[in-house]
Design brief:
Largest sheet: 5 strands, parallel
CATH topology of the largest domain: Methyltransferase, Cobalt-precorrin-4 Transmethylase, Domain 2
Strand order of the largest sheet: 3-2-1-4-5
Bound molecules: S-adenosyl-L-homocysteine
Radius of gyration: 30 Å
Number of helices: 17
CATH superfamily of the largest domain: Tetrapyrrole methylase, C-terminal domain
Shape: globular
Structural class: alpha/beta
Distance between the termini: 23 Å
Oligomer: single chain
Strand content: 15-25%
């Protein structure tokens, strides 16, 4: 992050505007709206500003700026076309530690104006850190159409009931659940359709019906597939539950980009296994899930890919079921699907493969317990998960059970992410290519004649 977003309370505080043209006017308006005491300093001040000043009793100083003008100001804005003057204002403000904004000269700013979606008291501020204002504005347009105008009233309504709700529902988790219900259920719909009074009555009714609770209610666990890496591949439900969870248990395969989409104030617990070192055992994870849920939390168990494919998701929810903890499972795009798509390798194809197998390439005590003669049968695609260390052995075993050494094979490293690399060869040459390229986990191996389609179908260039 380049800039720290903060919301500035300027009510009744002195804000100095250096400049009296149309650009200044644009910046003065939002200052008036938030109740700032605006002072405008410029040798020439346009009539629109003069009108505004009369209406809102702003101070106008029709003269040149001098450094003393900034003393005691809460915010300074320079909006002149004199670069030298803008620089002087910026330097003086920064010397006095006063936040300063110079219009269109980001290098002179200590604070910038964001694009704003205003549903007061709810406000969304968007900034591109000065890199792409047009992008920020486009985002704003998108959000404008996405967020019903009733959000402002909804927030006001909540503000009105906040204290009452706090007194009646003393348990923090139950209170959170209460508000979430209000904001996503029929009360919010009533607000959005302008039935404000009905909404307010309903909210009061809902609160009256609420049992005063100091005991924890039982939480819930969401076992969610986070997909192979690209956050765009999350499902809507995954995203929704990610935004709802109080605690998130995640492991190594969950990409940083995906993780950044969980609720900001959720507690993050890393339970990944690093190679050769198992800081958190599976039993431990199972126990933690139960424990957190019993405390009344909404617990997100976030896994790479799909939780039911080499994810031990089954074991985790079996333990929850044994302990009577409610849960739901959200499928994710498994590495085989993600990597195959992003490498341009269809897993099945009428001319190449009528079936596909997902195989674990993980060795138990340096040995494979796989039925190799089945794996070398024709017209199928083999997908090995967790096979990087065993790649050489896998290829040798396939050859020794009769698979042609020229059978195409691919290894996809960090599939679907900006760091994706695809190694293409055959089962004879691939191990060497992968060694030469220094591939690192996670990687996925695809074996079969479908791999030959990569040349023609590859599309994802990072
Ligand atoms: N549940 C996961 C798989 C867990 S096993 C899923 O459905 O995808 C872990 C293995 O998944 C890794 O060793 C690797 O083989 C594969 N994998 C996961 N993400 C990957 C990615 N982005 N690129 C390549 N392989 C990946």
């Amino acid at each position: 992050m380049y800039l720290l977003p903060l919301f500035h309370n300027l009510n009744g505080r002195r804000c100095v505007m250096v400049g009296g043209g149309s650009v200044a006017l644009r910046k003065i308006r939002p200052l008036i709206e938030v109740g700032a005491k605006v002072e405008i300093i410029a040798p020439e001040i346009n009539t629109a500003i003069i009108d505004l000043a009369e209406k809102h009793s702003l101070c106008l100083y029709q003269r040149k700026f001098n450094n003393d003008d900034l003393e005691g100001a809460a915010l300074v804005i320079a909006a002149t076309d004199d670069k030298q003057l803008n620089k002087q204002v910026s330097e003086q403000a920064q010397k006095l530690n006063i936040p300063v904004n110079v219009v269109d000269q980001p290098e002179l700013c200590s604070v910038v104006f964001p694009s704003i979606v205003d549903r007061s008291p709810v406000q969304i501020a968007i900034s591109s850190g000065g890199t792409a204002p047009v992008l920020a504005r486009m985002l704003r347009t998108r959000l404008e159409s996405l967020i019903p105008s009733g959000y402002g009233f909804l927030a006001q309504l909540a503000g009105k009931f906040r204290q009452q709700v706090k007194e009646k529902i003393t348990d923090a988790n139950s209170r959170k659940a209460f508000w979430e219900d209000v904001f996503s259920g029929d009360i919010s719909e009533l607000v959005f359709s302008n039935k404000h009074n009905v909404a307010e009555n309903k909210l009061q009714e809902k609160l009256d019906k609420q049992l005063s609770s100091s005991t924890n209610s039982l939480g819930e666990v969401y076992l969610v597939g986070g997909g192979p890496g690209d956050p765009d591949l999350l499902t809507f439900r995954a995203l929704r539950l990610m935004q709802k969870a109080d605690i998130v248990l995640y492991d190594r395969l969950v990409s940083k980009e995906v993780l950044s989409l969980v609720r900001r104030d959720a507690e993050l617990v890393y339970v990944g296994k690093t190679a050769g070192d198992h800081p958190v055992t599976q039993d431990n994870i199972n126990e933690k899930l139960v424990e957190f849920a019993k405390e009344g939390n909404r617990v997100l168990r976030l896994k790479g890919g799909d939780p039911f494919i080499f994810g031990r998701g089954g074991e985790e929810i079996a333990h929850l079921a044994d302990n009577g903890i409610p849960f739901q499972v959200v499928p994710g795009i498994t590495a085989a699907s993600g990597c195959a798509s992003y490498a341009g390798i269809p897993l099945t194809h009428r001319d190449h493969a009528q079936s596909v197998r997902f195989i674990t390439g993980h060795q138990k005590e340096h040995k494979y317990d796989l039925n190799w003669s089945e794996l070398v049968a024709p017209n199928q695609t083999l997908v090995f998960y967790m096979g990087l260390n065993g790649l050489e052995t896998i290829c040798q075993q396939l050859m020794s059970y009769g698979m042609a050494s020229t059978t195409p094979a691919a290894l996809i490293e960090k599939g679907t992410t900006a760091r994706q690399r695809v190694f293409i060869g055959d089962i004879d040459t691939l191990p060497q290519k992968v060694r030469d390229g220094g591939a690192k986990a996670p990687t996925l191996i695809i074996v079969g004649s479908v791999v030959s389609l990569h040349d023609q179908l590859s599309w994802f260039n990072n």
